[in-house]
Design goal:
TetR_C (chains A, B), homodimer, transcription regulation (chains A, B), Tet_transcr_reg_TetR-rel_C_sf (chains A, B), 10 helices, Tetracycline Repressor, domain 2, mainly alpha, DNA-binding, TetR/AcrR family transcriptional regulator (chains A, B), Arc Repressor Mutant, subunit A
DNA sequence: AGTTCTAGATACGTCAGCGTATCTTATTGA
DNA sequence: TCAATAAGATACGCTGACGTATCTAGAACT
């Protein structure tokens, strides 16, 4: 911090959480260290220990931080199918976040520290139910009469997100346009559209 | 090994791989160490180094070992639906294997060592296409006229396994009977049965 | 200006895990 | 029986990361 103004309070904490998140995305939870986060944040370890005495505490806080800040515009193409494809494409582009999130989940599972699961699990599962913006484009499609709301059970509603997430986790690569089209056209839409 | 007969050659290697696999299941790849495996196998580290100089080599070999040995009888209930439910139930019961497998995949992703992916990915993806025995019960169902083979695209065929796997990875818990029934009855069967 | 708080830097000690070297000894094959 | 091989045991040194203590100095408040 030679020559730089020292950060304090909320500003510092925000910078620490952002650095922690970026470290998670870069190295995963397995290799997530106080050293690494401190270096990334341009601070010293005791500064971090003061706030988060355990590594898992810091990781969980970083996830929460990410959740609060990861917002984006959802699509509005005029067609449910195209909205959904665009949405899935967007989620796919953010796969690094999913992988990082998931690495924390796995860390919690194997560590059995009981410090990670609980609310992280809840947060994870909440995010899993719907990709961001899904409810909005579903509502539009219902109003346009494109899909049958009676067919939209929780599990079917979760289907596009689930399949995309699965694909991302299995391949660790962006999901191809072809795969997205299959998920939407061959599986999801046949189950929820009225034309059947 | 005080008082025990020393293992040699293939016997020793088998025991090492079994210990390595069990260590993977117990602690995941993140905490997978030569020390841990050596202790579990009742041997010393140099014995392991001689065969697998890198930790990732040992993990990959353990996965291969597991794949060769993890076989089970597949169900034959007389009905495709019930066969499939039983199969998914079986896979769910073996979720620890999936989690261990996946922890190696994630390790490979973040380490970018280039030593893990390649064939491990291929093996992982191959297993992901079909749970064991899926082809057999599908063939029976086709012969019984229960499903329409024309509808069985690769992605739809992969659907039950994908959704089950996703569920397992998201919750880290056995998949409930209710969830299995939803996957089969509400999603998969409507897509592949002739009655629609 | 003086005081308080704490950010940032650094040092120290500990430990787990690795990699390597060395030695003893059991097993197998000639 | 002897020789070769390598399993098993142990010791040593190194590194990364952690946890803690201490100190300096910047920022905010009075």
């Amino acid at each position: 911090m030679a020559g730089e103004t020292r950060r304090r309070g909320a500003d510092l904490e925000e910078a620490l959480l952002e650095a922690a998140w970026q470290e998670l995305v870069a190295v995963g939870y397995a290799r997530f260290t106080f050293e690494g986060v401190a270096a990334r944040a341009g601070t010293s370890r005791p500064v971090i220990y003061r706030r988060w005495p355990q590594r898992s505490d810091l990781a969980v806080a970083a996830v929460r931080h990410f959740s609060r800040s990861d917002l984006f515009e959802w699509p509005d193409t005029g067609s449910f199918r195209d909205d959904l494809v665009a949405l899935l494409r967007e989620v796919s582009a953010r796969r690094l976040s999913l992988v990082a999130l998931f690495s924390v989940q796995m860390g919690g599972f194997f560590e059995e520290t009981g410090t990670t699961p609980g609310e992280l699990r809840d947060q994870f599962l909440a995010e899993r139910k719907r990709p961001f913006g899904f409810d909005v484009i579903v509502q539009r499609a219902i109003e346009r009469g494109e899909i049958d709301p009676e067919r939209l059970t929780p599990r079917i509603a979760a289907l596009p997100g689930d399949l995309l997430r699965h694909e991302l986790l299995m391949t660790m690569k962006p999901v191809s346009e072809e795969a997205i089209a299959e998920i939407v056209d061959d599986i999801f839409l046949p189950l929820v559209t009225k034309s059947r």
